[in-house]
Design brief:
Elements: E1 2-4, H1 8-20, E2 28-30, H2 34-44, E3 48-50, H3 53-57, E4 64-67, H4 74-83, E5 87-90, H5 98-110, E6 115-117, H6 125-135, E7 142-150, H7 178-181, H8 183-194, E8 198-206, E9 211-214, E10 219-222, E11 228-235, E12 240-246, E13 254-262, E14 266-272, E15 280-285, E16 288-293, H9 311-328, H10 337-356, E17 360-361
Parallel strand pairs: 1-2, 1-4, 2-3, 4-5, 5-6, 7-12
Antiparallel strand pairs: 7-13, 8-11, 8-17, 9-10, 11-12, 13-14, 14-15, 15-16
Length: 369
């Protein structure tokens, strides 16, 4: 492994996950802020440190590149890594335009390279068990998916904001922030659970807190971003969905909830750290409509893991283990660049819906294969 980016998420989730799986060896870490890379190397005993990512890509002993850098750098770093013949795990989004993500997917596929996206919440033990139950008929035919990803991370405008690529960009037009950064994982889960593509969407975005301290500048600035949004959609199989995301909604991390209601039952999974527990799963049936706790099998947790562990290390340990299975074995890819392209296409459609104030049909353009 070569890890690009040595910030809090790289250290708290990514590298910790690799260190938990003996199939990985992290041999290089890179960050243009060299002190961050040096600190990560010291904490995790990583032998090679650099501020130049090309030095990592040039190494013949590295099989996989992890892109855990600011979002506006993802696409270039990803394409450079693929060109260097490396498998790539990239934090979301791979690119802001779904066409670029699709292009990266197709290029990786043509070279026999595996890809993975940081759809962390797919790899929650509770979410994985919810998927098993859906596949085994617990809800019957899915009717409705409700998805929420929200917490109060930036409800205080004095908390430095990192969810924006260009603080000096055009402020006359609202930029996607919550929709992109928070919307992607819950959109992915809706697609995964319902097992169908969206055919049309309509949505709206709001800028609730117009002035904030921005991390890149350290200054209070007028930042016209969506810090909250809602959209509804229709799936090809007849199911409906509603998605709500926000980082100015009171609540704890990660603040994610997925609900599926169907002909034979309903399931609600919450990934919220409350009272020392990071995930819960509840179910109900037509003849027993009160939602009751469902026990999550221990086999779905990484070695030594439990719901009392931090969601950051718990879910990511499962994610990187899944990627190892895909690279080393015959496991079908999940949460790869094709899934990311689909999610980005939905986000682009919701943006278009907001600007044009109408329903927008999907697909927008090229089909993901």
């Amino acid at each position: 492994m070569g890890v690009l980016g040595a910030g809090a998420w790289a250290k708290g989730a990514h590298i910790s996950g690799y260190k938990r799986d003996p199939r990985f060896e992290v041999v290089a870490v890179c960050d243009p802020q060299l002190d961050l890379a040096e600190d990560a190397a010291k904490v995790f005993d990583i032998p090679f440190v650099t501020g130049d990512y090309l030095e990592v890509l040039e190494r013949k002993d590295i099989d996989i590149i992890d892109v855990c850098t600011p979002s506006h750098t993802h696409f270039k770093l990803t394409m450079d890594a693929l060109n260097a013949g490396k498998h790539v795990l990239c934090e979301k989004p791979v690119a802001f335009d779904f066409h670029d993500t699709l292009r990266a997917h197709q290029f990786a596929k043509s070279r026999g390279l595996k890809t993975k996206v940081g759809f962390t919440f797919r790899h929650s033990p509770a979410m994985r068990y919810m998927k098993e139950l859906i596949n085994n008929g617990y809800v019957g035919t899915p009717y409705v998916f409700n998805g929420y990803e929200q917490n109060s991370q930036w409800i205080n405008p004095q908390t430095p904001l990192r969810q924006i690529a260009d603080p000096y960009g055009d402020q006359s037009k609202i930029q996607t922030s919550s929709l992109e950064g928070y919307g992607a994982p819950i959109i992915d889960l809706g697609h995964w659970f319902v097992g169908s593509d969206l055919t049309r969407v309509v949505g709206t975005m709001r800028n609730f807190v117009p002035e904030r301290v921005v991390r890149q500048t350290g200054k209070m600035m007028r930042i016209n971003i969506d810090d909250g949004d809602i959209f509804i959609g229709e799936f090809a199989n007849g199911a409906l969905c509603s998605i709500q995301t926000s980082f100015v909604t009171v609540g704890n991390y990660p603040g994610l909830e997925a609900r599926v209601y169907g002909s034979e039952g309903a399931l609600i999974c919450r990934l919220v750290e409350e009272s020392g527990i990071c995930e819960t799963l509840k179910g109900a049936k037509p003849d027993s409509v009160e939602f009751k706790d469902i026990e999550i099998p221990q086999r779905l947790y990484p070695k030594g893991g439990s719901a009392q562990e931090s969601w950051r290390t718990l879910f990511y340990a499962n994610l990187v283990s899944s990627f190892a299975d895909e690279i080393l074995g015959d496991k079908e890819p999940e949460g790869d660049f094709s899934d990311s392209a689909w999610v980005s296409e939905v986000i682009n459609a919701v943006e278009q819906s907001f600007w044009e104030k109408r329903w927008v049909s999907l697909p927008l353009g090229n089909t993901v294969s």
